Amino acid sequence: xxxxxxxxxxxxxxxxxxxxxxxxxxxxxxxxxxxxxxxxxxxxxxxxxxxxxxxxxxxxxxxxxxxxxxxxxxxxxxxxxxxxxxxxxxxxxxxxxxxxxxxxxxxxxxxxxxxxxxxxxxxxxxxxxxxxxxxxxxxxxxxxxxxxxxxxxxxxxxxxxxxxxxxxxxxxxxxxxxxxxxxxxxxxxxxxxxxxxxxxxxxxxxxxxxxxxxxxxxxxxxxxxxxxxxxxxxxxxxxxxxxxxxxxxxxxxxxxxxxxxxxxxxxxxxxxxxxxxxxxxxxxxxxxxxxxxxxxxxxxxxxxxxxxxxxxxxxxxxxxxxxxxxxxxxxxxxxxxxxxxxxxxxxxxxxxxxxxxxxxxxxxxxx
Length: 367
Fold this sequence. Notes:
signal, Svf1-like C-terminal domain-containing protein, 367 residues, mainly beta
């Protein structure tokens, strides 16, 4: 099968693995919907700017892992598929590993989520997907206990972009499901037993051309209901400034409501010390025109931080700077609270418990 990208593009993709729900500022309403496994499978597109990513996660509240498989056709060169692995714990902080491969080392088929990239793979296990990742410095194996019946397309399928024939699609395959496995670092094997999830992104347009910052929040409440929010802050070329959405699901996977963020207000701001970006600590999203439904997000504990430029060679660093002034990835445990008299615009159902806890990811591109 075909995949292509050079080192520059591969690292660019790592920065941009957040989940979008809509990229057109003219869209008045966004509706998440159920998604199929086939929709989240491999789908090559010939336009320059295509890339596809599957991000698998794990946590046991002591260790946080984000393992990503990438396929792309951005730019020339043969090193074109790749994996990235982020591992965080309080004792060691963040450890970041990447490895790139050529198109000849990719094996997959259209519509399939199973794939092989040399000695890295996603396969069908007895109880759900299983992943294997080997970056030379680290080896990871995770086995998820889940089906695909709760998968949801946060974007409602493909969202058309302002450029002709360009689109983006964002899906949540599963989250907070049981997962077991192991991690090998420096010859030491660590047994893993916790919860995890998988997110999928497919697009055929370079996101750095119109955005500064991407976000994704995946969370759960005491009733097992899920709340997802994500989107981007645009650059000067993007009309409308920002596009973000909020979606909720019950424990059985039924969508409760999906809404576009109509406006937002920063309640507390800081100069984030690791990246030196101005970022909200506490922010409120308004979800309806009556101002009767809002979501307040509060960042808490750091569970991962990456300076992309510090993890690449001097030659590659020069080329990355042509596209990204200060690329960072930041991960936080965050709290969220819904304050709503009814579901946004009176459409849908509110969760049983308005308080959520989960992982918030920032993908910072340019100030």
